[in-house]
Amino acid sequence: MHLTTLETPCLVLDKAKLQKNIRNLNARMKALGVNLRPHGKTAKNIDVMTMALEGQEGGITVSTLKEAEYYFEKGITDIVYAVGIAPVKLPRTLRLMDKGADITVLLDSVEQVRFVAEAAAEHGVTVPALIELDCDGHRSGITLEGDDLIAIGTLLHNEHGVSLKGVLTHAGESYQCRSTEAIRAMAEQERSMAVACAEALRASGLPCPVVSVGSTPTSNFAQDLTGVTEMRAGVYMFYDLVMAGLGVCDEGDIAVSVLASVIGHQKRKGWVITDAGWMAMSRDRGTSAQALDQGYGRVCGADGEPLDDLIVSGANQEHGIISDRNGKKIPWASCGIGSMVRILPNHACATSAMYDRYHVVDASGEVVDTWHRVNGW
Ligand SMILES: Cc1ncc(COP(=O)(O)O)c(C=O)c1O
């Protein structure tokens, strides 16, 4: 069955590109001597994660408890839930631990230590925790300034029901870098900050076995990971236009695309209308601040080859508007009504989240599998 027989819009995953992306980062981490703890939030699928875990120690990162439950059911036990813990999520976390999952939670306040400790001690278990560090002002986490690090670390070490496992940081600001030199510097900033915090904990007599860092840009550009025990990344499996705009990958490396049908022409305006609006692409406009704004996505033919300079320049709920980014003439013959295009997404996680499955294709466009996703919370 060829992909052009699929009903549109739908999500297509190029297996060969996926495998290549995974192998490349695995090899990079091997060369740097660090374990990769792949992030399950991009694929939200066990087949992809099984590939990503090849040659690694076996632990994963997740962004929701739904992912944690799903991956655990599929046989993965070592799971870092890398979003700050809230009281309401503890009963589910503890239930998962009762079943045998080795869940590590993330926190950056004394309040969180206290409520985790109380719930865990009452339940008769010990919950391991990582302290979230803010290495770049991106969002949450603590810095070396002040007493927070040692205060949280000491409490985690001493309280019943919790244990101090180490530190974790995510250089999310690397997405805003404008050069590969800047990403390289960000990777070093991420590493050195995490290592400095680990050393500060150890100097206070506290254990810090885990030093966890990571993002797709920094994992691709880190030159040295001395002191780091694990790298986390998720987008690298699929890549996307934001990563291509950053110079982390080429457009040709992007493994995930949206298959859409051409449903109309507005020849006077130079528009091709498709059935892939923002419900199919997501509202993510991550390339809007980059040097090359890709609209809602870069347009390729059904064979996956880019079509001139076509992008999805506009999107309504179920309508996509394709035009040439430079106002050049549309290759109408390649965009006949009823024909299909493949659109590369700005942000692989956001676009994939609009779908419940991947149609897995080989390089010739034959559908070789269907892989389901675990969406929601
Ligand atoms: C805590 C954490 N670690 C790792 C990652 C993975 O980074 P990327 O999405 O760049 O692959 C993310 C992404 O949001 C994250 O929030």
TrEMBL record:
Q: Which CDD domains match?
A: PLPDE_III_DSD_D-TA_like_1
Q: Where is the D-serine dehydratase-like domain?
A: 255-362
Give the GO biological process terms.
D-serine catabolic process
SUPFAM superfamilies (UniProt xref): PLP-binding barrel
Supply the InterPro entries for this chain. Answer: Ala_racemase_N, D-amino_acid_metab_enzyme, D-ser_dehydrat-like_dom, D-ser_dehydrat-like_sf, PLP-binding_barrel
Q: Name one GO molecular function term.
A: D-serine ammonia-lyase activity
User: What are the entry keywords?
Assistant: Lyase
Pfam assignment, any one = D-ser_dehydrat
Recorded family membership:
Belongs to the DSD1 family.
Cite the PANTHER family for this sequence.
D-SERINE DEHYDRATASE, ZGC:162816-RELATED
Q: What name is this protein filed under?
A: D-serine deaminase, pyridoxal phosphate-dependent
